[in-house]
Amino acid sequence: MERTSDVLIIGGGIAGLTFALRLADHTKIHLLMKDEFKYSSTQQAQGGINAVLSKEDSFESHIEDTLNCGYGLCDKEVVKSVVESGPDTIKELIDYGVQFTKNQIGLELHREGGHAHNRVVHAKDATGAEIMRALTKAAESHPNITFFKKMMAIDLIFQYQAGNNSLNEHTRVLGAYALDTETNKVDVFLAPVVYLATGGIGKVYPYTSNPHTATGDGIVMAYRAGLEVVNMEFTQFHPTLLFHPKERSFLITEAVRGEGGILKNIKGEAFMSQYHPKLRELAPRDVVARAIDAEIKKTGHPCVYLDVTHLPSHHVKDHFPTIYEKLLALDIDITSEPIPVTPGAHYACGGLRVDRNGQTGCHGLFSGGECTYTGLHGANRLASNSLLEAAVYAKLSSIYVLEHLNEYQFKQHPDVAPWVYHNYSDEYEESLVNPLWIEVRHFMWNYVGIIRTDKRLSRATRRIESLRKEIEDSYWNFRISKDLVELRNISVIAELIIRSAIFRKESRGLHYNADHPLPEQEFKLDTRLSLAQQGLFR
Q: Annotated catalytic residue: which of 257, 285, 463, 528?
């Protein structure tokens, strides 16, 4: 089936929904969702969104904190633009109906790791869920926005310059092929403007706070088309995922440490003063994650503990009701016993390169949210800057599209080839999809995790080269399915992370190589990868 709109949005988190709402009065929009709203990364964001809203705080302080956290790789102009957009972004979200937590003097502000001031606007400990509630309500009621759920984009569709099938300044995006994951049929969605908002890459690791949808789909589709991805070695591992056999991806927000939570090892010893004497529990996430990893290896115990039992129980229940109720259902009363936690993949600081308007290197193709690289985060993301970035860049992209709307129209209806099906089925071979998925994720954790070495990266290279060939053979020779497409995508993401990590012969931010433990001036540059430019520093 073929469907045509003015704008095609792939992904329904804060980036995709904000972009849709800003354009909906002027354009017809189709929005593809791989699953339900509740499985977006935004939905699961607990902590909040940054904005300078107190007299004690300043734009200069927020900018400085962001730059310090980025270890020299942030784009200073991007940082300034995003930070200064913070207060207006909060107001606009409130106008959409988001109900942030308030106190007697106004919006209640939390503080998280790496911040000099309280500036995290939140809705208790379920900020993302509240943002999604308001945005989805607004989007679902708009007549110009049509949702297609259980539709997974597989490949982008392009119009190339005559006689040239490579990406250049004449290339135009036309839409995407999308798989109906319930029928395994592929539909064609056509639009002169395509917005990628497909979220993160966390499922390339076995321990992650990300939803099951986070398989790097947008990054992989764009990379296969020849577009540039940047800094894929910088995967942020959140220090505190719940360690529990029944819940392997439940996040314990950084705000718990911001309110006074203390990290302790199995012996009951508070250890963060050994790793960052000044900030301790409020050190940047990469420092805290490596500290926990070191304590786990030192003690041989599979987790550490986050203790809030010294805080008033009413304060804990009031500030973190979602966490309290969730863990109580697992027989953990956080007011009287510590929380078992371990690090897990949380946020990709690299992604598809976009300009100041959120446009990629292809005319009509925009991208926002976690799948993009804007230059804001550098080598490490400051806590709660991600929702801010997604909302700000969705706004910038929408303004640009509206200003150039006449350019983004089909001069004639595109003639697009239908999807070619490979209907051959081999149940024995197809049964290997799940084992291959597990293998990719576990060797990524062991070889390309929180702490890396040259030898481990070399081993990972050999493994991924072999697995990529095997997976590609299956993709091109067997019937298509969601599991097969996702397996293919995480294998590409794994390869991009490994290749990027190998090129960075230093330790900087989220990339820590024990064989090169210090940052080096010669590597104070972005790692850029494309099919044409294989991993060069510029």
A: 285
